[in-house]
C-alpha cells in the first residue's frame, strides 16, 4: 500500500510534465505554421513543396530559353516533364535537334504571375520588341555608325590618298583620353567604309562581267 | 582611387591592340569610363563566304578578368554554326578555365589568364573560316553548313552585303 501512495504523485508529476512538453511542442509547431499559411491544415507543406517545384521548373525553363531563344516554352516544358526535369538531357536533345513536338493535349501551366516575374516578362518583352526594331532601324553598318555623310563626302578619287595619309596617323596610342577615343572611332569608320567600297567595286565587277558575258 | 587588376590589364591590352592592331581587327572600350565593355569589328576572313564583311561585336568582361573570360556577342546577323541566334559566340577560348565536363575540349583550349582579347578575336576570325561542327550553337546553321554548303554560303554572302547596305 505504501508503495502505491508513493507512486501515485510521482506518476501524476510525470504525466503532467510529458503533457506540458507535448503541448509546448505541439503549439509552437502549429503557431509557426499558422504564421506562414493562415487557415492551412495538414496540406500546408505539400502546397509549399508544389510551389518550390514550380519555381525550380520555371528556373529550368528560363535557363534553357536563354540558351535557345528559338525553342518555345511549351516544347521545353514537355521535354523537361517527359524526362524527369533533367536540364542537361534536355539541352543535349535540343542541340541534337531531337526534341519532340508536344501533343495538343499538353497544356503547360502559364508562367507564374508574381509581380517580379511580370516585371521581368515585360522587360524581356520590351527587350524583344526593341531588338527587331533596332535591327530594322539599323539594318546595316552604315546606318549603325552614321557613316552616310562620310561615305558620300569622301569620293573614291581622293580615297586612296586619304587612306594612305591617314593610316599611319591612326595607328598610334595617344596619351590623351579623348584623342584615343576619337582615333578608335576613326579606325572603326575607316574599316567599314573601306569594306563598303570594296564590296561596291566587287558587285560592279560582277555586273560588268555578267553584262560582258551576255553581250558576247 | 586605384584601378583594379581587370581595368589595368584591359587598358594594357587596349594599348597594345592600338599600337599593333592585328590585320582586320579593331577593338577597344566603348567609353573609357567603363573598361569592362568593349566593342570590336572583325573582318570576314578571305576565301570564305564572310569575305568582305565587317562584323561588329561586343565584349563584356567580368570583374575578375583575366581569371574568367569575357562573353562575346555579335551585334549584327551572323549565320554560323557556332554563333547562337542571339549573336552570342560559343567557342572554347571563351569557356571558363578547367576541364570541360563533357570532355569535348581540352583544358588548354579553354580560357586562361595567359590568353588575351587579341587571341579571342583571332580565334573568332578562324572560327568564321572553319566552323566547329561538334558543338553547334545554331542548329539550323550547322545543319545547312553540313548538308547544303552552297545554300549556306549564299545565305551568308547575302547577309554580308545587306550588312554593308548593299
UniProtKB/TrEMBL annotation, chain A:
Domain of life: Eukaryota
Subcellular location per the Swiss-Prot or TrEMBL entry: Endomembrane system; Endoplasmic reticulum membrane
Regions that span the bilayer: 6-26
Region of interest (Disordered), residue spans: 100-138, 153-185
Listed Basic and acidic residues bias regions: 176-185
Cellular component terms per the entry's GO annotation: endoplasmic reticulum membrane
Keywords, in A-Z order: Endoplasmic reticulum, Membrane, Transmembrane, Transmembrane helix, Ubl conjugation pathway
Boundaries of every CUE domain copy: 56-99
Pfam families (UniProt xref): CUE
Comp. bias intervals (Low complexity): 115-129, 153-168
Biased composition (Pro residues): 105-114
Topology class, membrane: Single-pass membrane protein
First and last residue of the signal peptide: none
UniProt-recorded Gene Ontology molecular function terms: ubiquitin binding
Family the entry assigns: Belongs to the CUE1 family.
This protein's name: Coupling of ubiquitin conjugation to ER degradation protein 1
Organism, scientific name: Pseudoneurospora amorphoporcata
Lineage: Eukaryota, Fungi, Dikarya, Ascomycota, Pezizomycotina
TrEMBL record, chain B:
Any GO BP: ERAD pathway
Keyword Nucleotide-binding set for record: yes
Family matches, as PROSITE patterns: UBC_1, UBC_2
ATP-binding recorded as keyword: yes
The organism's place on the tree of life at top rank: Eukaryota
EC number: 2.3.2.23
Active site (record annotation): 90
One function term, GO molecular function aspect: ubiquitin conjugating enzyme activity
Xref: Pfam families: UQ_con
Keywords: ATP-binding, Nucleotide-binding, Thioester bond, Transferase, Ubl conjugation pathway
Reaction catalysis annotation: S-ubiquitinyl-[E1 ubiquitin-activating enzyme]-L-cysteine + [E2 ubiquitin-conjugating enzyme]-L-cysteine = [E1 ubiquitin-activating enzyme]-L-cysteine + S-ubiquitinyl-[E2 ubiquitin-conjugating enzyme]-L-cysteine
Signal sequence bounds: none
Residue ranges of domain UBC core in the record: 5-165
Family: Belongs to the ubiquitin-conjugating enzyme family.
Name of the featured protein: Ubiquitin-conjugating enzyme E2 2
Upper classification of the organism: Eukaryota, Fungi, Dikarya, Ascomycota, Pezizomycotina
Amino acid at each position: 500500500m505504501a508503495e502505491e501512495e508513493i507512486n501515485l504523485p510521482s506518476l501524476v508529476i510525470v504525466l503532467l510534465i510529458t503533457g506540458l512538453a507535448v503541448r509546448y511542442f505541439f503549439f509552437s509547431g502549429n503557431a509557426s505554421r499558422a504564421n506562414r499559411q493562415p487557415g492551412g491544415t495538414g496540406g500546408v507543406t505539400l502546397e509549399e513543396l508544389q510551389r518550390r517545384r514550380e519555381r525550380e521548373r520555371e528556373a529550368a525553363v528560363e535557363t534553357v530559353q536563354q540558351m535557345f531563344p528559338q525553342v518555345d516554352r511549351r516544347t521545353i516544358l514537355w521535354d523537361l516533364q517527359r524526362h524527369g526535369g533533367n536540364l542537361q538531357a534536355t539541352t543535349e536533345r535540343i542541340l541534337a535537334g531531337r526534341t519532340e513536338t508536344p501533343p495538343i493535349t499538353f497544356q503547360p501551366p502559364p508562367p507564374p504571375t508574381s509581380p517580379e516575374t511580370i516585371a521581368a516578362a515585360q522587360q524581356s518583352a520590351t527587350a524583344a520588341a526593341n531588338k527587331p526594331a533596332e535591327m530594322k532601324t539599323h539594318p546595316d553598318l552604315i546606318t549603325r555608325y552614321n557613316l552616310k555623310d562620310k561615305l558620300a563626302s569622301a569620293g573614291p578619287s581622293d580615297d586612296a590618298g586619304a587612306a594612305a595619309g591617314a593610316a599611319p596617323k591612326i595607328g598610334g596610342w595617344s596619351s590623351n583620353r579623348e584623342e584615343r577615343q576619337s582615333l578608335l572611332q576613326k579606325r572603326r569608320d575607316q574599316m567599314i567604309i573601306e569594306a563598303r567600297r570594296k564590296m561596291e567595286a566587287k558587285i560592279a565587277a560582277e555586273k560588268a562581267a555578267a553584262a560582258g558575258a551576255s553581250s558576247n | 582611387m586605384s584601378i583594379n587588376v581587370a581595368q589595368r590589364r584591359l587598358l594594357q591590352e587596349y594599348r597594345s591592340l592600338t599600337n599593333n592592331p592585328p590585320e582586320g581587327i579593331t577593338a577597344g572600350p566603348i567609353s573609357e569610363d567603363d573598361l569592362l565593355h568593349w566593342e570590336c569589328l572583325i573582318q570576314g576572313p578571305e576565301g570564305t563566304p564572310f569575305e568582305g564583311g565587317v562584323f561588329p561585336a561586343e565584349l563584356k568582361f567580368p570583374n575578375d578578368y583575366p581569371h574568367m573570360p569575357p562573353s562575346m556577342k555579335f551585334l549584327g546577323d551572323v549565320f554560323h554554326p557556332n554563333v547562337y541566334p542571339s549573336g552570342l559566340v560559343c567557342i572554347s577560348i571563351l569557356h571558363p578555365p578547367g576541364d570541360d565536363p563533357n570532355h569535348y575540349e581540352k583544358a588548354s583550349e579553354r580560357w586562361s589568364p595567359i590568353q588575351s582579347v587579341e587571341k579571342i578575336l583571332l580565334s573568332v576570325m578562324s572560327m568564321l573560316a572553319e566552323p566547329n561542327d561538334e558543338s553547334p550553337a545554331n542548329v539550323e546553321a550547322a545543319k545547312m553548313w553540313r548538308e547544303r554548303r552552297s545554300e549556306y554560303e549564299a545565305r551568308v554572302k547575302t547577309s554580308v552585303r545587306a550588312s554593308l547596305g548593299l
